[in-house]
Design brief:
527 residues, mainly alpha, Serine Threonine Protein Phosphatase 5, Tetratricopeptide repeat, elongated
């Protein structure tokens, strides 16, 4: 037939014959001859054929150019809908998803009766999905499901509808499960059924229903034992049990994955999670052993820095501070790119020195940490520990500097009120009652929810008494009684209030108070 077409100079039909033989390069040559022949009668079809030869060869750059040329050259062609579809496909395969979507939309909007509508909806859905526009993707997949129940795309569209709903910013778990269950019930022989079953488990994880999720992952193993999702299911069963705080059960599932699927790329994470499970069980020896195994086998794994950091914590919990410090230093030295972990490790090294009562080294280490990581959220607790270390060394002024810095620069630090109270306590020890009043007023005014308020009011009243400011003494203790009626200091405060009233010779209030005092045994509170 090819020779016959040559003899009669029918270039287009020669191209068609070669195209059907998958001789795309030769077919393109014949089509191009038709285009260059002044007498050629099949130029439109020849250009369309050239575009398809590139498409079949997966030369999507050229097929995109040629389908676009065809659309521009023959805007009334009967092949226009198909050309827009293939233009979209050519762009999609080049990862030009937004441009692909524009081409598919031309078919969807302008050729609603076209035989290529379901193809275009499918392409538009995947173009949206690939751009993480899951709402738009679900719209197109749903149209395929509802309008083209006999389409070749129906199974995948049903599955991907579930995936789109699962990946929404606010996932629609129940509706997603509906589509995954539809895949399982209506297409039981499909390879997508095991994947759908697996995704149902993920829907329950998204709802924090770990027990139900575990049951669904178990079905993957039970119903699809040859599926490629079995190792994933074992991992997620372990994760569900981990979240349910069934750490022994989690270890069993992770270990089963490790032993029964030795080629799985999930094994590194399973080993890491076994170590984490032992850690949660406070079995620090086994946790450390497993973390070290993980680091030996998978030193380049993304979780390697976390594993080294966790090893430090296993020693820390066992109060083996020297070993803990070395492990945390290893994080800093070996994984400097993990800056958050390096910051935490640097802080914990100082903590180790403090717990070993080596206060000079603790101070130096924590000061170095503050200098190296000025953005660290650990600076306030580091300053607090520095202040306490200076206190332990009898360096009161340096201690005050640290506590003042916390109060001034980090007032929202949870222990800023404790720092303020420590400042006040410094002056209590020195019997500097005027400064005690100033510092405790700062605590009362700046930290209105502090657990130190009862002591702040008590010592403010006490300071006023020592300053012979008896009206302020009585008033402060009166506030104390109203604010803290259940405080164990209440009886002590009543007696001190009485003493202040006595000093003022306020007999009327004193009589009222004395009647109340009869209910309390006198107890002295020493601080």
């Amino acid at each position: 037939a090819e020779d016959d077409f040559k003899q009669t100079n029918l270039n287009y039909w020669q191209g068609e014959s070669l195209y059907r033989l998958s001789e795309y390069r030769k077919a393109r040559g014949a089509y191009q001859k038709e285009l260059s022949d002044p007498k050629g009668e099949w130029k439109e079809q020849a250009l369309f054929g050239i575009a398809y030869t590139y498409f079949k060869e997966k030369n999507y750059i050229e097929s995109e150019k040629t389908f676009q040329e065809f659309i521009n050259s023959y805007p009334q062609s009967l092949n226009l809908a198909e050309s827009w579809l293939r233009l979209g496909d050519s762009r999609y395969y080049q990862n030009k998803f937004n441009l692909a979507l524009q081409a598919y939309q031309k078919v969807i909007e302008n050729y609603p009766k076209s035989e290529f509508l379901d193809d275009s909806l499918y392409g538009a859905a995947y173009s949206s999905f690939s751009q993480r526009k899951f709402k738009e993707a679900s719209f197109h997949f749903k149209r395929i499901i509802e309008e083209f129940p006999a389409s070749d795309y129906i199974l995948d569209a049903t599955f991907q509808m579930g995936e789109s709903l699962l990946n929404l910013p606010k996932p629609e778990y129940e509706e997603a499960m509906f589509y995954f269950e539809k895949v399982i019930s209506e297409y039981p022989a499909s390879s997508l059924t095991s994947n759908a079953q697996y995704e149902i488990g993920w829907c329950y994880i998204g709802q924090n229903n770990y027990e139900k999720a575990r049951e669904e992952f178990e079905k993957v193993i039970l119903n699809y034992p040859q599926s490629k999702w079995v190792d994933d299911a074992l991992l997620q069963i372990g994760n569900c049990l981990f979240n349910l705080k069934d750490f022994p059960g989690a270890i069993k599932s992770y270990f089963k994955l490790e032993t029964e699927h030795p080629q799985s790329n999930l094994i590194p994470y399973a080993v890491y999670q076994i170590a984490a499970s032992y850690f949660k069980l406070s079995d620090y020896e086994k946790a450390r052993e497993t973390y070290k195994k993980f680091l030996t086998k998978y030193p380049e794994n993304p979780n390697a820095a976390d594993a080294q950091y966790a090893i430090g914590w296993t020693y820390f919990h066992q109060k083996k501070y020297t070993e803990a410090s070395k492990s945390f230093q290893e994080v800093i030295d070996t994984h400097p790119s993990h800056r958050d972990l390096a910051m935490e490790s640097s802080y914990l090294i100082g903590n180790c020195w403090y717990n070993q009562k080596n206060y000079p080294n603790a101070i130096n280490s924590l000061q170095e940490m503050i200098k190296r990581y000025p953005e660290s959220g650990k600076i306030p607790p580091a300053l607090f520990m520095i202040g306490e270390a200076h206190q332990r060394l009898g360096q009161e002024e340096k201690s005050l500097d640290a506590f003042h810095k916390i109060v001034k620069e980090y007032p929202y630090f949870p222990d800023a009120d404790a720092a303020q109270f420590k400042i006040a306590n410094h002056y209590i020890k020195k019997s500097n009652w005027s400064q005690v009043v100033v510092e405790l007023k700062n605590l009362i005014n700046d930290f209105s929810t502090s657990s130190y308020l009862p002591q702040a009011y008590y010592w403010t009243g006490y300071s006023y008494y020592q300053l012979k400011r008896y009206p302020e003494t009585a008033n402060t203790y009166s506030q104390f009684i109203k604010l803290f009626p259940l405080s164990p200091l209440k009886s002590e405060v009543h007696y001190r209030q009485g003493e202040a009233l006595f000093k003022q010779k306020n007999t009327e209030k004193l009589k009222i108070l004395m009647r109340k005092l009869l209910k309390f045994p006198k107890k002295r509170i020493f601080f």
